[in-house]
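chain below, 155 aa
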Amino acid sequence: MSTITAYPQTDMSPVDALWTLIQGQSRNVRTVLSRLLHEQQVATEVNLSKAFDRLDHLATLEDGWAGKGSYAVSPQVLSNLRSVLFISEDADWRDWMIGPDVNATLGLQNKITGGSISLGANEFSYYVSRNGEELHESHVPFTSQSLLDVMRKIS
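prediction:
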């Protein structure tokens, strides 16, 4: 007799579901899927005001939003990104998507370059591959300005 594990259904937007799927893939697959997501007009947030709206939505996610073992986005992580929004310009957000990760962090993905940033409560990591050259760094101490500088650098 086989056992089937059923997880409770949660309210998840199609964008959050696709974002979660994308984050579990290799860097190359994430880049391709992110571009496809954008091409299908499902991608989120193309400017500053929509980025604020996206954060408001992500703040409503609860533990279990993507099934067992997924955690709500940390209030500190949301506050970190909000502080970046306050010092940025509309053009800074033109090509960025914001999505939740199951470990209470946020991911930012650039729709054009495929660059990605993982934002935690106290630090962030980033990656982009351009012209065969990889640019990346892990465990960068978070400040609003340092994250904004990296966003601009890998855009």
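Strands lie at 96-100, 106-110, 116-119, 123-130, 133-141. The mean pLDDT is 84.
thats it, cya
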